[in-house]
Amino acid sequence: MTIISIIIATGLILFLVLILSFLRKPKVYTFKKEQFVPSDMDTVFDFFSRPENLEKITPPAMGFHIMTPKPVEMKEGAIIDYTVNIMGIPARWRTMITSYKINEFFVDEQLKGPYSYWHHKHSFEAVEGGINIVDEITYALPLEAFRSIVHPLFIKPQLKKIFSFRFQIIQDKFNNKK
Length: 178
Known about the structure:
By secondary structure, this protein is of the alpha+beta class. It has four helices and seven strands, in the order H-E-H-H-E-E-E-E-E-E-H. 35% of the residues lie in helices and 35% in strands. A seven-stranded antiparallel beta sheet has the order 1-7-6-5-4-3-2, covered by helices on one side. The radius of gyration is 20 Å and the shape is elongated. The protein starts with a helix and ends with a helix. The model has no long low-confidence stretch (mean pLDDT 90).
């Protein structure tokens, strides 16, 4: 077997792996973060239901910027376009608010963006002394063949970093409120 034959065979194997990854049902991941804030429901829900506040609670290095003209009316069917840096590369992202119930929850789903699937439910529950905020994200990655490398090394740590930053900003905002 010549070197050229080995290179061709290796290329064909990689090509088949990629083709099969598109035919397989993608692996779906979940991420969940909970946070308690000592505030009232109207104040907390109002803050989170204003898309412009997402820029305030996203790490600056991500270059998050809403492209949709402001103010964006948060309601079921609302579409929000924005840009975000992924590994230093600007990416366009479009989400739709697919469910919205005032002072309870809203769901945004990616229509266009870096994930093959993105479903983010933001829930709010009044509890003694304040509000419990729950972010539940279900997502899948493109290029299924590479997910076992990309997810643990980049995606999962990046989500943890984003939500740790967000957690701290929210704690500061609602704990220092006078």
